[in-house]
Amino acid sequence: MTAPEIIKRTGRPGRTIYGVLSRLGIPRSYMGAAVHSGKSPETRALEAEVRTFSEQGMTVAEIIKRTGRPGFTIYSVLRRLHLPYTRALRPKSQITRALEAEVRKYSKWGFSAPEIAKRTGRARSTIYGVLGRISISSRRMKDAGLSNPKTLAFEAEVKWYYSSLGMSSVEIARVTGRSRKTVYAALRRLGVLPRKQSSRSG
After folding, report:
1. How far is residue 71's CA from residue 100's CA, in Å, rounded to a whole number?
2. 149-159 and 180-189 helices cross at what angle (nearest 10)?
3. What are the residues whose beta carbons fall under 8 Å from the beta carbon of 135, sequence distance 6 or more?
4. Mean pLDDT, the chain, as a whole number?
5. Nearest to 167 by CA among 199, 129, 137
6. Which of 52, 89, 92, 127 could form a cystine bridge with 96, CB 3.0-4.6 A?
7. Each residue of 71-89: b (16+ CB within 10 Å) or e?
8. Residue 59 falls within a domain, yes or no?
């Protein structure tokens, strides 16, 4: 049966039948010659034009420009034809590339996103955005930092200041240049309860 015959037999709207046939992956050639009977010649011509441009590798913006149609119309046609949205990626600026390299470096050293934000002078939201673009999650940063040589060296330094010199977490933070939160985290990983005040005598 053709699509119109199925519509007649089932008593369902044409749009419903065409949608079902599409979901079932039935090729258009099996739907009958009248499968496009509900579309105007102008619509069919536009779909053919969009398909041709898409197969040529044009971006959505280029198709919009070539056809002179609004963006929402082209996106609607692409969806109907199950064609991919090809978008042109803007080249990253030198500043963006430098920031991404810096964030990647600090993340490998075991710094948290807030610490990276403080060191780079950027907003936390910016740093989280960069981490997302370079596919580094906060969780992965934390896990990777536990076995990072820089992190291990820092923990050894913290342990020495704390156990051998009797420094408090505040003093260790001041000496190492790290935040108190980072020092607390290192002490917790070492199984040490941070002391609030130095045990050294004045």
Report:
1. 32
2. 90
3. none
4. 77
5. 199
6. 92
7. eeebeebbeeeebeeeeee
8. yes
Amino acid letter, 29: S
Which DSSP state fits 177? T
pLDDT interval class at 121 (50, 70, 90): very high
Instruction: Choose one of 54, 80, 106: the last residue of a domain.
Output: 80
50 touches 59 (CB < 8 A): no
For residue 66, pLDDT beyond 50: yes
Counting beta carbons within 10 angstroms of the beta carbon of residue 91, is it exposed (0 to 12), middle (13 to 18) or buried (19 or more)? exposed
With beta carbons less than 8 A apart as the criterion, state whether 144 and 107 touch: yes
CA dihedral 129, 134, 88, 48 (to 10 degrees): -100
Residue type, 148: N
> How many residues belong to the chain?
202
Residue 200 maps to a domain: no
How much is the pTM? 0.32
Judge whether 199 lies within some domain: no
Same domain, 64 and 99: no
Banded pLDDT at 67 (limits 50, 70, 90): very high
Domain's final residue, options 80, 113, 137:
80
Return the higher-pLDDT residue of 202 and 46.
46
